[in-house]
Amino acid sequence: MFHVESEYTVQYGYRYFFDKLNPQTGVSVQIAQLPIVGFFSGTGFFNCFGHYVFQGIDSVLQNGDNANALYEVDTLGNLIRSFPMDTAQGTWYLSTFPSAGTAFYYAIRLDVFTGNWIAEKINALTGARTLQTLPIPTTYSFINSAQTITRNDVLWFSVYDQLATNTYLLSFDPANGQLTYADTLLGYGYDYEALNYDCANDTIYGFVAHGDTVSGAELIKIHGASGTVIHTGITAQGVLNDRFAGRSHTRLTDGRFYMHTFNATYLLPNFYVSGPTFVLPTTAAQQTLSVFCMAAPRETCSFYTACETNGIGVLAETQTSLFPNPVVHGLVYINGEGEFILTIFDLTGKRVLEVSGNKGMVVSLASLARGIYVAQLVTDGKTAVQKLIIEP
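Structure (tokenized):
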């Protein structure tokens, strides 16, 4: 798994690195220095193309206009591209989410000057955006440690009412513009923490914690289809005085949950636990690194293998596929029966090739240079998008 690390030295001041982290031992290795002077800890994920995406602050523009950007790097830390995330100072992003079934990102942001809340839909290839204004009061602020997205691209996040001192858990469906207040925590100090989505069971798991509580946090469950929030009454216990502030967290491809807080690092086998309490196991080694934006790679554009048919990526064996990948002799084979449309994009989003025909045919890619591309395959009303590597 990978993450952004903040490091301070007297000689260099604050610097930010792209790191690879071993979830078994907690040992982290720096891969590359990032061209940023800050970042937003609510964003860190792997996209459909196997690249790590996070939101940072440009080291040249810094506090000026267009300073916020969405950065995309490969697993060697090479910068693939970046998209400007705002046009003026004073715009703050709660988080950016990867779509489970399309080549888009979603973002929730707050304009601190106007108080307007905005939902954005961002084309992952071109950076083009569409905007929706959300009916959230201007007196609310965001909490960037609790957010996730379901396989139907419904966004879940929490906000804080500064006047009533309540915290609300919201869901937003970009498809119909519906904003729902799903749950409320009454009183100052309560937070939703570390929301993680289990695609196979269409269930969100997370915690409710209190800043002054040392006895742990309550496990909550949310069914993705109904949006029903269940307070289980089961208490998760960690190290002493850990307030369970989810500084950064992710779900590994094998289903395990990994969370780094201010006090400890936890590796939980799964969320299928029974009460009244359970102990969050810590990793074998603890580090004092400033670890943020943790993310484990995804095999496809769907969250997990069980959900591949609900999204784009490598389709199930009974459907259409494109192989071999990597392409080694300039030829790819489209299996199955019926018609297809194959479109190839370079990493700037430019369409470089489009071919249509019947499944079962061989397509020549000899006109394309060696490198990494994005292949979009449309067949039977379904769209698959995957990274395509062309070798000599």
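Confidence is low (pLDDT under 50) at residues 300-319. Residues 262 and 293 are 14 Å apart (CA to CA).
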